[in-house]
Amino acid sequence: MKLPRRFFQPLAVGAPAPLRELPVRLERMIHFVPPHVEKMRAKVPDLAAQVDVVLGNLEDAIPADMKLEARRGFIRMAESTDFGSTGLWIRMNALNSPWALDDLLEIVAAVGSKLDVVMVPKVEGAWDIHYVDQLLAQLEAKHRVGKPILIHAILETAEGVKNVDEIAAASPRMHGMSLGPADLAASRGMKTTRVGGGHPEYKVLGDPAGGGTRSVAQQDLWHYTVARMVDACLANGIKPFYGPFGDFSDPDACEAQFRNAFIMGCVGAWSLHPSQIAIAKRVFSPDPGEVAFARRILAAMPDGTGAVMIDGKMQDDATWKQAKVIADLAKLVEA
Ligand code: GLV
Ligand code: MG
């Protein structure tokens, strides 16, 4: 991953804008909090100590008549909590909704200096990112926000998937992207009523064996989109994430979905339920056995070139680079 990278802070007022570096942070789980519910807000200080990112959700799952209360609740939560090194994000309302503009105006005015990332739903093209980028630049200048607020896009429409490369490259403010399987399923006309995960009818039947029995292999509905998103993100030095997994009663399926995403290159996923925090932490931290093997490769090829055999497997410059990805992540987890 190319992070950290240089970043222009587009402040128009005061001293010349300094060049900044994006922080390299662990963001294994983006934990969703409904900020209009006081009982949930009360848990945030404890939560902040357990998760990598706390996100105040203003969009889907917040009833229309609670939108303003959610925005106000987020501001109260941000003002009254010390998040330390835990990230503080919002998921704003969609850009074509009646709430989007005021979400940004009010939140940046009140707590812009504490806000790390704005997650923008239903992004369809670079134009959506440009709009939020300019608005954030104006609001940062007006309210003297000292560090740039980053943008994270949700990839959850067919049009967005078509334009994924342009979205990833749309602004130096881009932090990353999450797959939104629920909205994407609807946008694509998929025949599902689920939030992520597999489908029992999406399968491949093996050839009939001797007695007429045949194997059944379920397929990953999200493989294609995750792969496209990972390539678009990594080609632009930003981070790819798997999004939500809605069946809280099936932790095994959640873990399997998160793990596929991790292996494919994603750095984290959303946790919508407290039980998913531990799953994400486990999945998106590298396995100790893998780390030990990666460190053996790095030690066996100190300058990263040549070829060696380890446990009967060939290692060369390319596997050295793979090992470095795992060892670097382990270092971040251990820090
Ligand atoms: C998330 O927002 C999704 O639609 O899956
Ligand atoms: Mg969605």
UniProtKB/TrEMBL annotation:
Binding site for substrate: R91, E156
Superkingdom of this protein's organism: Bacteria
Cofactor requirements of the protein: Mg(2+)
InterPro entries (UniProt xref): Aldolase/citrate-lyase_domain, Citrate_lyase_beta/mcl1/mcl2, Pyrv/PenolPyrv_kinase-like_dom, Pyrv_kinase-like_dom_sf
Key words, A-Z: Lyase, Magnesium, Metal-binding
GO biological process: oxaloacetate metabolic process
GO molecular function: lyase activity; magnesium ion binding
Matches recorded under Pfam families: HpcH_HpaI (PF03328)
Gene3D superfamilies linked to this entry: Phosphoenolpyruvate-binding domains
PANTHER family: CITRATE LYASE SUBUNIT BETA, LYASE BETA SUBUNIT, PUTATIVE (AFU_ORTHOLOGUE AFUA_4G13030)-RELATED
Entry similarity comment: Belongs to the HpcH/HpaI aldolase family.
Official protein name in the record: CoA ester lyase
Organism for this UniProt entry: Enterovirga aerilata
